[in-house]
């Protein structure tokens, strides 16, 4: 069927409006992915999506359906590549595509159905109510008597088997007893007929499935549009990741309402457990310590600016003055092993992280094996610290703590594997200590006191 330019323009306009409705009102957390969609007219009955977020649409279908319905179809289609159905299909060994498409649809549609009901209960204008398309029935978990909230892989196990497999099974069963075989055959056909009707709404979102974003080989129109899109697999992964981050932020601010539960689980899976980089942890600990040290100290060697209010005569109370204090930080590097380029590189990356966390502090870097080997004060850039890294004998911690006490150090950051000959006799100093453990370490503070950061 050919369409006039006006019809094509109208279809395009409806899709644009549907995307805005979905991204602004219905599922704002999926906005990034929705705006990544590239639309293209395609020789299909409804809509389908590629793994590169190209959305093909049948013009007749778009012209026939309302904008709110098209918004729902878009939210359905975008869920396929976001949930990486194509990769999961491959990981399963490329099972029957029609069955997989239905299973994937069930994974999406239970959430979408809850979302539609929640949205419509808020919308007073019925004309703006969301609705499923009139031309095809969505696959729901109850269609195969399974509960909502499962994954496509689980629904696939409950999908009616494809005709070919059924026929093979029938052939196997049609063994020795001819009469029984005939009776059973007719019974089975009836059962299969009802099973198929109950379980598979063949159209899902279209009689050709939902596109290669779900799995299967890409159709010609999909190959054409995907090759035109200058979009790598990495770009597509970035869409998934950004959308997952947006989803978590949205849920954190608005709560996990109806129809969002599946997306919450999905985002958790995409983003994985939150890993704090050791550099971030070190920076946080050190900057907290520095902030406390840097607070103005009460001193009696300098008069208080408020002293004039109480007078200077004998008997007047003596108010303390305030003196700002520049935090003195010592970064000690355990150079007990042989110090090569690699070790120096690791030490410098630690120092770079510390420098970022200690603006306004005085930094000294030293190296120590059984004695202090290098000591450089006034470090502003990690390159200045390289000359301080020397040594290679055994390990003692005491030389560093003794020197730190005499130099009025406020915080020692000790980069070490935590093994030293004088551990048992070491007592906690007056200053703060942060152990940065590198190499073969025990994973905890070697002395039992001080903060501990484990670097990679
Ligand atoms: Zn689908």
- Helix-strand pattern, N to C? HHEEEHHHHHHHHHHHEHEEHEEHEEE
Report the structural category: alpha/beta
| Count of distinct structural domains | 2
Largest sheet descriptor? 6 strands, mixed
The helix count comes to: 16
Present the secondary structure layout:
Layout: H1 5-26, H2 31-36, E1 38-41, E2 47-49, E3 54-57, H3 59-64, H4 67-82, H5 85-91, H6 97-122, H7 152-158, H8 163-173, H9 178-199, H10 220-228, H11 233-254, H12 261-271, H13 278-293, E4 297-303, H14 307-310, E5 320-323, E6 328-334, H15 341-357, E7 362-368, E8 372-377, H16 398-406, E9 411-416, E10 432-437, E11 451-454
Parallel strand pairs: 1-3, 6-7, 6-9, 9-10, 10-11
Antiparallel strand pairs: 2-3, 4-5, 7-8
